From TrEMBL:
Phosphoprotein listed as a keyword: no
Organism whose genome encodes this protein: Teichococcus wenyumeiae
Reaction it catalyzes: [protein-PII]-L-tyrosine + UTP = [protein-PII]-uridylyl-L-tyrosine + diphosphate; [protein-PII]-uridylyl-L-tyrosine + H2O = [protein-PII]-L-tyrosine + UMP + H(+)
One of the GO BP terms on file: regulation of nitrogen utilization
Protein name per UniProt: Bifunctional uridylyltransferase/uridylyl-removing enzyme
Domain notes: Has four distinct domains: an N-terminal nucleotidyltransferase (NT) domain responsible for UTase activity, a central HD domain that encodes UR activity, and two C-terminal ACT domains that seem to have a role in glutamine sensing.
Span list, region Uridylyltransferase: 1-391
Amino acid sequence: MISSGDMPDAIAPSSPPAFGGARPLPDLALDLVPRSGPPVARDVALTLLRRQLGRIQSRVQEAFEEHALSGLAAARALAELTDGLISAIHAYTLAQVAPEHAMAGQAEPAHAFAAASEPPFALAATGGYGRGVLGPFSDIDLLFLSDSPLGPRGRRAVEFMLYLLWDLGLKVGHATRSIRECLEDARADATIQTALLDGRFLAGERGVFERFDAAFSQARQDWGLGQFLQSKRAERTARHKRYGDSPYLVEPHIKEGRGGLRDIQTMYWLARYAFGVQRMPELVGPESPGGGLLTEREARAFRRAWDFLWTVRFHLHYVTGRAEERLTFDLQPVVGARMGYTRHGKQDGVERFMKHLFLTARDVVRLSHLLEPAIERAALGAPAVQKSEEPGLTAAGIALADGKLIFAPDKDIAADPAVMLRLVRAARNRGLELHPLAQRALIRNASHAQALRDDPDAAAIFLDLLQGRDSHRWIRVLNEVGFLSRYIPDWARIVGLMQFDTYHVFTVEEHTIEAIGVLNQLERGELEEAVPVASELIGQLQSHRALYVATLLHDIAKGRGGDHSELGAGLALEICPRLGLTTEETETVSWLVLNHLLVSQTAFKRDIDDPKTILDIAEVVQSPERLRLLLVLTVADMRAVGPKVWNGWKATLLRELYWRVAEVLAGGLSVPERDVRVSRARQAAAALMADQPPEAVEQFLNLGYPGYWLSFDPETHVRHAGLIRDAEARGAPLTVSTRVLESRAVTEVTVYCTDHPGLFSRIAGALAVAGASIVDARIHTMTNGRALDTFWVQDAQGGAFDAPHKLARLSVLIEQALSGSIDLEQEILKVRREPARLRAVQVPGRVVIDNHASNTHTVIELNGRDRPGLLHDMTAAISEQGLQIASAHITTYGVRAVDVFYVKDVFGLKIENERKLASLRIALLAALGSPSAEPV
């Protein structure tokens, strides 16, 4: 087996650890078991051991935090110093259990058991400790190994030693097995095989360990690599599914996630199992096992990734004071700062740190694709490469192996780099997998893609892959092997780029590939129920190719500072001609990139019942085809952000906006004169109320101001009429009605009561206390002086607020809030609890006041950190300024809230007085909690 001094470069501890001149630790074994006399009492020993453990931990931490040790060196040092502690405990244990035979000066104290007619045992390290690396809070895995099952004294020694370790507060994983038991258990369990593969002798009877080492080596040869390889692949698949299938998740698991430490360890286990190598550089060069599975550059890349990830892991452990392996939002800026990442140009230090981390994870994935198939081929034999029966494949330099596509053995990729694209296209067209050796070749030859940048034939294949069947899958392959970054240089700038917020789940390039995947789903009809309009429109598009290229490029300029839409539109003008797009297609792509946020920002931030909103967007779009393209791109972009972003309410708003703009572009009368529209709405409501007394109908028709009639459909008007008639008949001062709209994933809450200043604010506060999130609101004062306010709310998961007990509580809370029987501010404070991991994400407050977006209202846009009761605070500040709120539109992006209000003054006019506007800005910034923020 591998000893601590000859582990692979990417794994072995250094010997001895460097501590910059620190004094050597005392010889603990002599303190515990003096050369003359009995061993010290157990309580004394425990005190000495705790003191030594404290020295070890503090010395390594101090050296690491002073940057005298990197993460890997610190892990090695901690393991080596722990070896001394464990060895001293072992010697003390034997002195206590067999005092007549074990003295401190004995070379082989384990012979005490042989003298007592009991089998001697060896103490071995397994797991990470066996590999000679330890995290500050990692488990210590030990194996008590013997030729035959231990006798009473041996079992007593094991128990004595374990209790000492537990009393020291160490987390210990342990097993007690004979050599035969080890082999029997390992044969049936690849996890045990793996643990034993990491085995390293620590103390006791060395001969026992050497016999086990030889037996286990022979057993591995007998079992073969196949079963171990299959098990490790299944284990890795399950692990990635649990901790993150993508190496680009914005809160990655450093140890178990894809591209993490465990993936590197898996490569070592396979190499160790197959060839018995002791160092990764042993796989370099033609004389190495397997004939040179790695280049020197690749071996160095393994070491760099291993060292970097260990450094991150050490910081995580020290910052949290526990074995924390997930790098959450609150820890990212702390760890990044500790590692020396500071702001550089347009990028914050934390974003630079996370990009380095994601690029490292990407390298680990690529290295795995490089090494694993090479190990399999060398250990199990090269696959039988067959010429395809299709002449076209053979002529293209492509062959078959194990039913998968591979480059022909005599194919020189450097001389014909387009064969990389032909291989991927052939796999797509025939529904075949790429052979692992083909992926290895793609990775090693990705740099040749730069020679294809002005090749029209290569561009045609690339565009075919981009817009063809399952295109996101093949674009992801081209990205992971490194081809895409070489082929489109601007793509390389977004690889591993994250935005430090809680809205985006993926890095920019992974989000882009997910968006292409949504287009694929739309074309296959898989989203007809969720987004019926986009599913229908994608089949009607004339600019199909432009849509896919625009999706590929819509975020290409992120991370450069400035408006990424504007910058991206400029880049599209440069990139599209090189991809073979026509002048018309290039202009369409550039326009789509420039305006890819237009539809979503309008739908979620503006009143789409305001005619000017519709006319403004129609003026920008101008073309029905562009409107179709923009809607489909918006759906793909939003659904690719993360699983919690899309919901039925957002789908409804986008759909309604699309149809209204489409009607205008078609020359329809979607936005006729206001009086005409009001008259039509009143007539439609009256027609539906034909069975009611004429005087009741006339009374209701006289209650609503024009804004009310334009805000709802006729069916809703009729419902309101019934609610008002019932409330007036009962003389009810307050009526609260709730209606669950499953198709829109919202619950509609209607409140009818006497109007008064601050009414909206108090209702919003009650809804916050109830746990309801407001996504939209319409505020109306009727001609009888009463308010008819409608709120659309969701639960915390983005679904309808529909639990009966919650709806009942919501109604009670609204009544209590309006009657003043509860202290709203205090109740809101009780629900303002935020997970610690989200507190690090900063959202500066921002106030935008726009008197051009609407002909009749002043539009206020507020950006700030979301929190329960934020809407209550905002609307209270607006009411205190003497303004009337007509409608509110609420959108959240992770922890960032964007709230838009349409307001008038007490005379029903826009607010245009500069002094009044300045006072309003100050009040709103204070309510946002950002008094120092810059107003706009």
